[in-house]
Structures are given as structure tokens and as C-alpha cells.
Amino acid sequence: MRRALFLLLISLLAAVGTSATAGGAWPRGKGNGFLSVSWTTFGDAVGYVKEISGPLSEKPELELTNESAVYAEYGISERLTFGLDSFSRRESNLSSAILFIAAALGNLDWKNHYGAQIGYGPVRDWLDRKDSVLRAGLAYGRGYQSPWGDGWVEVDGKLGWQVDAEERYWKIDSTLGYNATDRSMLYLQIQSGAGVDGPIYVRAVPTYVRRFGHGISVESAILLGMQNDNAQGLKLGAWLDF
């Protein structure tokens, strides 16, 4: 039971995912900041549709989970970025707030970019227990150009340790992005992860971002569970580059 709850916690910790412009392989740069505020709702919508499409012995309900998240970064040097990665769910009291330092590795002028990250912060789990998470990460990214426009690819992996529960987890976010115009971009992120000896989940998150000037952007995304994840959802967020 404890392991099942932990695996559920890890899957939900990654339900929203990090913004494709955040952290990872590219440093923010000295004096530059980024702030993302988002709201996500998700549940087993496909299962709900199947239930209401068949014979009904009782009225089914679509159970949705709502989450708010805040992600922030600030470049303290050309190579080092300080940040906050946090979320909360009022219905379940599940929450986390990880402070981290990310460092660019290698020459900043290289076409291939590499980054490392270490973070620590409090988490409250499904049993309403307070714990702490120690998290480390490595990332790779590269920009590309094509006849249809430019974009980027990135692979961001993280390994976490829930201290009191003595449980580990990992997750990998793989992103393919495309700058459609000067004011819009599209990207597809494939999220995967698991607890130790647990089943691997896979989720697809196609996202559209619209820039409005003055550093303000709005994102909209769809969450599609693919493996060991039966949830579908919608994410809306606002970004500020400063």
C-alpha cells in the first residue's frame, strides 16, 4: 500500500511538467528572470465517456484533480540559475516546493548544451505526511534550423529521493519545439518516470504558446496519458520573462 501511494505521488508530481523554456540545458543568464503560473485539471475523461455511453445502473461522476503551480528562475551568473519549482492541490493537500540551483556545463557557445541541477524542498504526500525531497538532474539541449523554421530539442532527466519515506523516483521529459512565428511556438513533451521497481508511466503533452510582448506569454496544453496513466487534462498558464 505504501509503495502504491508513493508511485501515485511521483506520477502526480510530474503531471504538469516543467515549462519547455525553463531551466534544463540552457542557463537563464545573469540578471534575467522567468516566472510561470499555471492551472491544470485532469481526470479519466475517456473512462467517463465509456461509462455514460453504456447501460447505466447509477449516474457516473467525472472526478477531476485541480492543480496550481508556480515556477520561477533567476540568473545569478551567466552559468548559474536559481529557481523554485512548486505546486499544490487543495482537495488532497498534496504539495511540493523545491528550491534548486542549475549550472550550465561546457562552453556556452557550443551547439550542444548541457546542464546539471540540484534541489531540495518540502513535500506533503497523500497521507498528509510532511517530508522532504532531494532532487538532482542532468539535461541536454540543442537548437535546430529547418526550411520551415527553427526550434529546439531537449532531454531533461531528474532523480529524486523522498527523505523520510526513503523512496527514490526518476523522471525524464523529452521535448521537441518549433518556433512557428515570432509570436507563437509549439512543442510536444513526452513525460515518463517511475518509482524504484515500479511501473513506468508515459504521458504526452502537446503545447501552444502565444507571446503578447513586454515579456508576457500565455500557454495552453493538453495532457494525454499513454502508459500506466489513464488521465486526460487541460493546462493553462501565463509566463513572464524579465
Give a quick summary of the entry.
With 242 residues, this protein is mostly beta strands.
Description of the structure:
This protein has a single domain (2-241), classed as Beta Barrel (Porin). It has two helices and twelve strands. It has helices spanning 2-13, 45-53, and strands at 33-43, 65-75, 80-89, 94-105, 112-124, 130-146, 149-162, 167-181, 184-195, 201-213, 216-227, 232-241. A twelve-stranded antiparallel beta barrel has the order 1-2-3-4-5-6-7-8-9-10-11-12. Strand 3 (80-89) and strand 4 form a beta hairpin.
Beta-strand fraction estimate: over 45%
Number of strands: 12
Shape: globular
By CATH, the topology is: Porin
Which architecture per CATH? Beta Barrel
Contiguous runs where pLDDT drops below 50 for at least 5 residues: 1-16
Q: What is the CATH C level class, in words?
A: Mainly Beta
Number of helices: 2
**Strand line-up of the largest beta sheet:** 1-2-3-4-5-6-7-8-9-10-11-12
Average pLDDT over all residues = 86
**Largest sheet: number of strands, sense, barrel closure:** 12 strands, antiparallel, barrel
Keywords: Signal
Signal peptide: 1-22
